[in-house]
Amino acid sequence: MLEKLGLFPAAASTHAGRVDALYLFLIGVSAFFAILIATLIVVFAFKYRRRSDDEQPKLIEGSLALELTWSIVPFGIAMLIFLWGAQLFVSLKTPPKNALDVFVVGRQWMWKVQHLEGRREIDELHVPVGRPVKLTLTSEDVIHSFFVPAFRIKQDAVPGRYTEEWFEATAVGSYHLFCSQYCGTEHSRMIGRVVVMEPADYQAWLSGDGRPAAGANAALATNAAAVSVATAGEGLFKDLGCATCHKSKPGALGPSLAGVFGSQVQLQSGASVAADESYLRESILNPDAKIVAGYQPVMPTFQGQVSEEDLLQLITYIKTLRSS
Amino acid sequence: MSDTNYLNVDYGIRSWLLTVDHKRIALLYLGSITVMFFLGGVFALMIRLELLTPAADVVQADTYNKLFTMHGIIMVFFFLIPSIPATLGNFLVPMMIGARDLAFPRLNLASWYIFLVGALFTLWAVFTGGVDTGWTFYTPYSTVGANTKVIPAAVGIFINGFSSILTGLNFIVTIHRMRAPGLTWFRLPLFIWATYATSVIFILGTPVIAITLALVGVERAFHIGIFDPAIGGDPILFQHLFWFYSHPAVYIMILPSMGVVSELITCFARKSPFGYSFIAISSLAIAFLGFLVWGHHMFVSGQSAYASLIFSFLSFAVAIPSAVKVFNWTATLYRGSIAFQAPMLYALGFIGLFTIGGLTGLFLASLGLDVHVHDTYFVVAHFHYIMVGGALMGYLGGIHFWWPKITGRMYPETLSKIAALVVFLGFNLTFFPQFILGYLGMPRRYHVYPDEFQVLNVMSTAGASVLGLGYLLPMGYLLWSLRYGARAPANPWQATGLEWQTPSPPPTENFVVTPIVTGPAYCYAGEEAEVV
Ligand SMILES: [Cu+2]
Ligand SMILES: [Cu+2]
Prior knowledge:
The structure holds two protein chains of two kinds.
Chain A: H1 16-47, H2 64-93, E1 100-107, E2 110-115, E3 120-122, E4 124-128, E5 132-139, E6 144-148, E7 153-157, E8 163-168, E9 173-179, E10 191-197, H3 199-206, H4 218-223, H5 229-239, H6 242-245, E11 264-266, E12 272-274, H7 277-285, H8 308-320
Parallel strand pairs in A: 1-5, 4-10
Antiparallel strand pairs in A: 1-2, 2-3, 5-8, 6-7, 6-9, 9-10, 11-12
Helix pairs in contact in A: 1-2, 5-8
Chain B: H1 13-17, H2 22-50, H3 61-96, H4 105-127, H5 141-145, H6 150-177, H7 190-222, H8 235-269, H9 276-289, H10 305-333, H11 342-365, H12 367-373, H13 377-407, H14 413-440, H15 454-484
One copper (II) ion is lined by residues 106, 109, 144, 179, 181, 183, 187, 190 of chain A.
C-alpha cells in the first residue's frame, strides 16, 4: 500500500512492515521537532525583529528547569527509539531453526548462489514464499554486501569469514538485489534479483525440471549438476584425503570429526572453542591456529587448494557427520 | 590611529610566504582551501551530471568511481577539516582572547606548508590517474583490489594530518596560556570553547587515521598481512581504526561551525546565549563522547551484535548534547532584537539543516532501521545535511560575519542575502530527495541505476546546479568587495567580543593596548565588557 506513494520500496518480507513502522514513527518524531524548531524561529524572528537600531533587549541567562526538560525528554524518546531498533535487530540476528540454508559467495562482480540440494545460480536467488531462508555469506575477494530493499535486509559478505542474514518472503514476485558495499569498477552492475515462488514452483525449480530459469545465466544455472552440497562435500573429503587422518580410531593423527559441529572443542592451549562454520573454515585453511588438545600440529594447510564454494561443501558435509 | 594594518604593513610575495602573522596565515589557508573547495565542487557537479540518467553516459565506471573518491577526499580532508579552524580559527583565536598572536607563530606557518605538501601529494594522485577506493579506503579493496594511485593519496592525507595536529596543539596552548587579563574560562566566547574542543579531537584522533593509512600503504607495498584475510589480516580491523578517527572527524567539522553560529545568533539577536555554560561544556562533552560511537558505521559489517547494541545506545546518547544546543540557540532568539543580515541568514539556515541532519542521524543510529538504509543514499543525504548543511553553512556565515574585520571592506548587502537564500534552497533541493532515494533502496556509489530512481535523481541534479550558483555568488561579490566595497568600521554589527574593539583590518599586533576584561562575554544588555 505504502509502495503506491512512490516513497517506499515494495514490502515483501515479514520484517519489512516492522521496519516501515519504526521508520514512520521516526518521521513523526522528526517532523514534530523540525516543525517545532522552525515555528519557534519564524515566530521569534517576526515578533522580536529589530525595530530600531539602538534596541537593547533584556538579559536572559537561561533556565535550569528548561535545560533539564529539553535534555531529559529527548533522552527518553531516544531510548524508546533505541529499544525499538534494537528489538528489530535482535530478531534479524536470530534466524529460526527451521530456516532453509542457502550459500552465497560474492566476487567481483557477481553473486554465486548455491542451494543445499545442489542447484546453483548466478545473480539470482530463488526462494519459496512463507518459509524462513538463512543465507550464509562470504566473499572471494573484497567486501560486498547483499542488499534486498524489499526485505529491508542487508549484510556484508566479508572475505575470510562467514556472515549470516535471514528473511521470510511474504509475496511472490521478483525483487531487486543490490551489492551495497563499494567493491570496485563494476560495483553498480553487481545487481540481480530475488525471485519469490510458490513452494510447489520452488520445488520444481530446485529439481531443475520446472520452468526454465530466466535471465542471462539460465544456461549456466541449469547445467550445474544437481548433486547436493553435502554429497559434493563428501566427494571432496575423499579426494583431499581428509579421511586418512580424521577417523575415529585410537592413534589417528587427527581428531574424529563425527559430531564435532556444534560441540565445544578442547584446545592444546587450554582454551575451548565452539565449533561453528568459521572454526571449521579456519581449521581447514589455517590448521595451526587452533590445535585440538592431544594432537600435533601436523595438518597441512589447504589454502589455495579449495575455493570458497568447496569450503562450504566440505563444512556442510562435516555437519552431517554425527557421532555414533 | 595610524593607517597601518596587517594587510598593508608589508607588500610582496615574500612578506606573505614567510609571514608568521596568524592573520596572514589565515588568509593563506583561506586561499588554498577555496581552491580545494571549488575543485571538489567540480567533481560533485560531474557526479550529479552523470546521475541525471540511469545509464552511463557522461563518464565510464572507472572515471565515476574516481570522481566520487576524489570529491570525498578533497572535501573532507582538504576543505571541511581545515575550513573553520585553519581560517577563522587562525584569525580569531588570538583576537578573541586578546593575544598578539598564537603561542607558536612559526609552527603555525609550518602547519600551512605541511597542509600544502599534503594537498600537492593528493592532487598529484588525482591528476596522474586518480584513486578509486572511496574516501573511506575500505580494505581489502584498497590494499589488494584497487590498482590506482592509493599510496600517493594516502601519503597526502598522512602528511596533512600533521598540519591538523600542530594547529590543534597551537590553539590549545594559546587558549591556556595567552588569555588577556581578566578573561577567565567562563568569560570566553563560545567560538573559543568550540575551537578548543575541536583541537582536542585533532590531537587525539588524527594520529589514528595517519597510522591506519600508513598500514594500508605497508600492506599494499610489502604484502604484510594486516587487513587482507588471504595473508592473515582482518579487513574489519581497518573499519574499526578508520571510524575511530572518522566519526570524531565529523565533530571536527561541525563543532567549529556550532561555535560560529553561537557568535552569530547572539550578535544578531543582541542577546547573551541562553545557557552559556551548557553550550560551552557540551562542546567538550561532544568531543569526548564522539570517540565512543565509531561502531555505528559497522552494523552490517559482521561485527558482534553485542558491540552493535552498545554503539547504538551510545550514539543516541551523544545526540542529546547536540539537540540541547539547538534548543538553546532557538531560546536565545526569545525576546531578542533580531536583525537579518547575511551572516544571520546562514546561522538560521544552519539551525534548520543541522536539525534535519541530526534527526535523520537517529534513523541511522537505530539498529533495525540502519540495516535497511546503510550504504544507501539515505546516508549520503544525512551526512551532507551535517557536513554541508551544517559545517559549510556555519563556515559561510562566519566568513560573511568576519569579512569586514578580515579585509576592512563591506560586501553588497542585498546580494549577500539573496546568495544565502539560494544556497539554502539549492541545498534542500539537492539533498532532500536523496533521503527518499535511500529508503527506496538506491545504494550509494552507483554509477548506473534502475530507471525507477530517475525522477528523484533529476531533482537532486537540478538542486546541485542551483547550489553551485549559490556558492559562486559569494565568491564573486566577496572578491569584488576587496576593491570596491565600502570601508568597514571597527564594529559594523555592533557585536561584543574583543576582535571588534580593534580597527578593521587590525594592526599586525592586533591590539594597540592589551585589553583587560572585566565581565562575561556577550554583554548585549547594558554594561559592556570594558577595554582599557
Ligand atoms: Cu560488490
Ligand atoms: Cu559516525
